Amino acid sequence: xxxxxxxxxxxxxxxxxxxxxxxxxxxxxxxxxxxxxxxxxxxxxxxxxxxxxxxxxxxxxxxxxxxxxxxxxxxxxxxxxxxxxxxxxxxxxxxxxxxxxxxxxxxxxxxxxxxxxxxxxxxxxxxxxxxxxxxxxxxxxxxxxxxxxxxxxxxxxxxxxxxxxxxxxxxxxxxxxxxxxxx
Length: 183
Prior knowledge:
The chain is α+β, with helices and mostly antiparallel strands.
């Protein structure tokens, strides 16, 4: 008997649970053309053996682990880009990275508070605020919103608009490059 294998990619449009008899829509895919929710479905027409099952399981786990590791490193990159822009903004008046005198540190602290306050008032974002026992408020949602409006971010931080736009482009393109390299 000849073995046959085929792969198909599927993207859900909406989720409607039918186990309770209701027709309530739980979730709707707002971007059906995106690959974000796309899942690979493999069809294989061959005799099921223990070796085949183990091979398929290992293939699936390897792909999932690779994707999870990439997502973790991508999230770290996004956070680091956000923190880089903020730390540049805090030090802009000094035109140097190391701020050592007490007067300069006090001025940098005031500038940091001013930038944080403007983000809170103008964009509704809590950026770089220390959370007791949890690091800072810089998370994935904050980073996305921070880079989604580069003009406002540039106006608040004083950092060059083109630099912010370039970092945003890099952040947006990285997942697509990963997906295309794994196909």
